[in-house]
Write a structure and sequence with these properties.
By secondary structure, the chain is an alpha+beta fold. The chain contains 6 helices and 4 strands, in the order ααβββααααβ. Strands 1, 2, 3 and 4 form a 4-stranded antiparallel β-sheet that branches.
């Protein structure tokens, strides 16, 4: 009998988590990008580089918050040498993001403008690249959880 009771409690908690997560997403999640925002690819064969992936970063607070960030940018796969360099630099890009974003507290990040963060990350990315440069960074996810 106690097994069924604990199973019922676990199912109830799981249901509350799902319902709570749904409400959180509905009220606190950013609107989906418009068609114009999605259509950022140049017409001359550029593609979106998404190799960095989604990164979870702890903030510099005494009780750290969490930042979830997905960075992408346009590159040209016909430029094989630069494309290979980008793949080899993924680990460096991830470290740059973690070092930079992780140096802020939740409050400091909330005061920062997203464009300033993109500009600084872009500057740091281009500083480690030798065979080409990245023009613009895009954040498809940028959530600060504190």
């Amino acid at each position: 009998m106690s097994f069924y009771r604990s199973l019922l409690i676990c199912l109830s908690l799981l249901g509350l988590i799902i319902i709570g997560g749904t409400f959180y997403w509905l009220f606190f999640h950013d609107d989906l990008p418009t068609h114009e925002e999605i259509s950022v690819l140049p017409e001359n064969g550029g593609q979106t580089f998404t190799g960095i992936g989604r990164i979870r970063i702890s903030t510099a607070d005494p009780q750290p918050g969490m930042v979830i960030l997905f960075v992408s940018f346009i590159y040209y796969p016909d430029d094989k040498v630069f494309s290979e360099e980008l793949v080899l630099k993924i680990k460096d890009f991830r470290e740059i993001i973690v070092d930079y974003i992780g140096s802020f507290s939740v409050e400091e990040l909330q005061k920062q403008e997203e464009e300033n963060i993109k500009h600084e990350l872009l500057r740091r990315f281009n500083a480690v690249l030798r065979l080409g440069q990245i023009d613009t960074l895009f954040f498809s996810d940028f959530m600060i959880i504190g």
